[in-house]
Write the structure tokens for this entry.
Amino acid sequence: AAVAACLLIFVTPYDAATWLQADHITATGEMRAVTLRDGSTVMLNGDSAITTDFSAGRRTIELLRGEAFFQVTHDAARPFVVDAESMTVTVTGTAFTVGITDDRLSVSVEDGSVDVSKADDPDATTALTRGQRAMLDRRTGMLTLGTVTPGTVASWRTGRLVVKNVALSDVVDALAR
């Protein structure tokens, strides 16, 4: 059994820490829909991984790698929080995507609203609503706000890739997924 586990870790495209930590994980080219205990749904893009932690007072998802689209069931008593490295996204009921690339962390809102904060300044939040996007540069820590057509948020769910005003490296990351 130990040999099989070592072989599985060796042949998987993920680093061992991600593979062992993730509750849900996808391979390159694979998409997967996950229904969470509260009725919220997560659509994982290719080469993505998340962990889930639901407690009495909070619903927390950690995006370990890749990109995920969330459709959150409203529950005012239990905030829904997505942690993505040095960025936290807090919602109560909405549809949005969170992504991690080599260069940046991003959030785009298809419907509803979210609050975005950085780990180094959790008290300073930026509110995003339908059609808004925030991108956090991983090198500089700068948060840039922009707009996005709501119908193109997580367009990969329908087999399309829609990009506008993004770095070529982000396009390459998206195609690699």
